[in-house]
Fold MerR family transcriptional regulator.
Amino acid sequence: MNQSLYPMRAVCKLTNLTADTVRAWERRYGAITPGRVKGGRLYSQHDITRLKLLKRVVDAGHRIGSVANLTNPQLQDILKEFRQFRDPGSVRTVNAKVDQIVKACKDYQYLEVDLELEKQASLTSTRRFLSEIVVPLCERVEEEWSMGTVTMGQKHMLFVLIRNLLGTLIRLRGNRAEPGSVMLFSTPMQGTYEFGALITAAIAGEEGYYGLYLGPNLPDSEILMAAKRTGVAGVCLWLSEGSGREPRMAEQMKAIRDQLPKNCKLIVGGPVEKQIAESMEAYGIAVTPGYEAFDDYLSQKARLSK
């Protein structure tokens, strides 16, 4: 009997991982090797089992970069020591919170959504709030909007509230940043994802950086002007899945990198195709294909500073 194979959408539902996370664990860390077919990738039951194990280990406090190449039995051994970190009801609880917020959003309950987001942000770490609430919520609403079950107004209402809250988190974390530890976050023009830049700015705050977020869709010339005038240690530009597939993007990012100050690092985030990512890396550009990859890069890299 042929083994069942699953598309990305099914994998995300079965593992409670975002598509960005699955891609990052696959492409950056080699944690799984899905089958390739015309039009995309298909994942086996073995891939799904392994992703679930990896998620449980990461939830228990380990970084994906340190466990991605372990065998499944080794991952299970780690989990035996950290059973208390994985309450069986935690995934259901998180999903219920996302459901609750989406329902309130559909009812235009602005205040209820705002208060629930603030409550969830206060109850856990910024990293977990981002990975368990913000990212799944954004993906869920985008999906429902594409199906017509969420209106443009409802979607915009939610995104305004999330944007405001993330801005507050970025400012609060930035107040603790060391002098010179400032990073600029934005997206280049055309086909970009604003929340990718906002979420990475919030993650950077957890690593001791101040995130200077300039909004989405900036011309290259304005990105360069801001970087030079502010003297930032690094520039992070987030690409959407569509722009991450465009071959021209490697040369565009190289042109930006060549004009940045010598000690300013360029980091490109988002689902960038492997060949394009390899070209960027050959130009001295750091590529982080997902939020966890970006987090790992900042935590493992020597501190960016001017």
Summary: Residues 84-89 have pLDDT under 50 and may be disordered. Residues 29 and 303 are 22 Å apart (CA to CA). Strands lie at 5-6, 35-37, 40-44, 182-186, 210-213, 234-238, 265-269, 286-288.
